[in-house]
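Chapter review. Work through the record for Thioredoxin-like fold domain-containing protein before attempting the end-of-chapter questions.
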Amino acid sequence: MQKLLQHKTLLLLLLPAMSLITSCQKEFDPKDYSAYLQGEIINPTSNYVLFCKDNEVIDTLFLDENNKFYKKFDSLTPGMYIYKHNPEFQYVYFDKNDSLTLRLNSKDFDHSIIFSGRGAEKNNFLMNLTVKNIMDETEGYSAFDVSPGKFSKRIDSVHAARTTYYLRNKAIINWSEDFDLYAKAKLDLHFYSLKELYPTAHFVRTDEDVRKKLPSDYYAYRKKINFNDDRLLKYSSFTKYLAIMLNTIVNEPEDEIIPDNKFDKYIDKLNIVDTLIKNPKVKNAIFDNIAFIYLLEDQNLNNNDVFLERYFELSTDKNQHNEIIQIQQAIQNLKYEKKLPEVPLVNAKSEKVSINSIINKKTLMFFWTKNGMAHADAAHQLAAELKSEIPNIDIVSICIDGDQGEWLNIIKKYPAKGIIELRSDDFNQMKDQWIITKIQRSMILDKDGSIVDPFINIFDKNFESLLK
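Structure tokens for Thioredoxin-like fold domain-containing protein:
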């Protein structure tokens, strides 16, 4: 009797909570695809967040006076999205009717991201996996020093442990099959990338070529990868792995492990993709990416026509051909001994500046962004040292973004004499005309303004010799 009373008492205590849970449960309209995204940015670098799908901006979410944002999407197709707060970005997955609250600190972007609300569990899992992968990459370079057997044993062990972590969360959260595609890709392709990198990284760190010492089944994991799923086409885990894998395949054991002849290797990559990938959408996108990277590499520009002939033979995406042709034409305008096309530039007095009118010495020109101050500081410091060592050169520093007042406040910290500070007044035009796609990009011009080297990194080892 006493146990019966205890059970009745417990049931009476639970009833209000059960009623509350029941009353809070929402019956979702099968035709309702609304979703919510709100959040807070600590230490924001701008006053907005970009919300994107496959790198296309869907909406701009502006921060209020408390650095918070809020957006209701009347209809949002379930799937993977991207949010960007320059210069960083990260992924967020929405199921039907998810309502997510995001909080992050821009000074510790990936490590600070926390989600709450409906749909938070799967996104927090994805971020936890991302952080674990980042830690592997930043702390694990010494792992490449060991023999192939020891390396494989360690990588396979960590992969197995993380797979257990993935399976446990999959069972608890019970996420969708579509989300599982991205979660599994982030898990597996991270370790596959490390295995692809091992032979080259081991050679760089130890000067030992182990490619012929690898077990015969070392690359067996490649057979597990579905290269034809176009949902992964814009997913960095997939695109990063594919780029690393192609580099590995084109550097066969009989070749130099770090080849000098990049031209032939890029044509090899086109041919490999043509054989490996059957889905035309995926294949064309990878062709475009290879062509884009090749055209921006520090390569022999006279080889472009031969490379593009093969690209046009294989690619069936006629619309993308025009963009590749435009890039090639822009690069042709940056050939050796030509002069730079004019683009909108202003000086500290807000005066328009013609780049070709201010060049009268051999000149180094480098670029920086207000959203990457570590690079800006390092580049300015190196430029000042170069000016001190080679006083008969000019140095032009170009900020690619920001308004005039903001830029003037920043350059106060760079008082080095002999550095000409300019600001781009239309970055899109400069990006298209000068092919500015990497902030590390620099140029060297001769005293008459003609181009000496249009594609060089200011931090390259042989950089100084080109200025003398």
